[in-house]
Amino acid sequence: MQNQKTNTPNSILDVKQYIFYDSNDGFVLSDPRFVEIFKSCQKVLKSFDLSFKKDVPYFKMSLARCPHCGTHHVVKYGFTKRTLVFKEIGKTKVKVQRYICKRCGKTFQTDLTSLVDKNSNFTNELKSESEHLILDYLGSLKNVCKSFKKFFGITVSHQTIENWLFVNENILEFDLGRCSGYYVFDVEWIKINGKWKYRHILLDSISNCIVADAIYDTEDETTVEKFLKESTANKNKKAITTDLDKKYASIIPKLGFKHQLCISHTKKNFKQTIKKF
């Protein structure tokens, strides 16, 4: 009887097996960490190639060429070990291919400057995230450091972030004391280490910047009141805009604010009232 070729079901593949293949549908990675690294490098892959060998990302030149004399007569010459810090997965050990030129005899390695600056371990994507956060937090370096730790599991010092942003010093001139007094409060679900949490967020509705945020296991009256009380201490107090959650109506006036509904929820509330009538 002739042997028949069968495909292995994905459900029985061991999680430590990493599947790579080329097809019309594109490149497929089975390990979630590798998928995140590939996404981070996707925009700059034209300058180098990325592969994965024995659980380690491996960078090599797309077209090996000597930067000193311009010849293509180069051969591989070992590799350099580096530790890069990616936005989604934190510190990752990688290998960077080194080369030696047959014509001039000089050595060089794969150019990763489109992914990470020279003499830096933090990727450019991660650095750009700090620019968004510093604007959201009205220039508070302390809150930016906390956010890197909270959402990405990455510890970054205040000085490091300030060094990233030194080219645009005006970005650090915001002051939380300048809050308008008009805020927007919302709670969103966020998944951390496989568990759903509640992220409480307070924004200044005039500047559209984050005043404070915190993650809790629950979303009850005690938690909401505690967050709003701590977040608005020593700040201007005029009004807080929320959705239709009923518990906000008793908490917000108690803290000295007028309670408002956003436009979309005001319309929704109006339609419900009309429907009942």
Give a concise summary:
27% of the residues lie in helices and 28% in strands.
Structure commentary:
It is built from seven helices and ten strands. The protein has helices spanning 32-41, 124-136, 141-152, 158-165, 221-231, 248-254, 263-276; strands at 48-53, 56-61, 74-86, 90-101, 107-109, 182-192, 195-204, 209-216, 239-242, 258-261. The strands form two sheets. Strands 1, 2, 3, 4 and 5 form a five-stranded mixed β-sheet that branches. A five-stranded mixed β-sheet has the order 8-7-6-9-10. Strand 9, helix 6 and strand 10 form a beta-alpha-beta unit. The chain is elongated, with a radius of gyration of 26 Å. Residues 7-30 and 167-174 have low confidence and may be disordered.
Q: How big a fraction of the residues is strand?
A: 25-35%
Work out the helix count: 7
* Largest sheet data: 5 strands, mixed
Helix-and-strand structural type: alpha/beta
Helix content: 25-40%
Taking the alpha carbons of the first and last residues, their distance comes to 77 Å
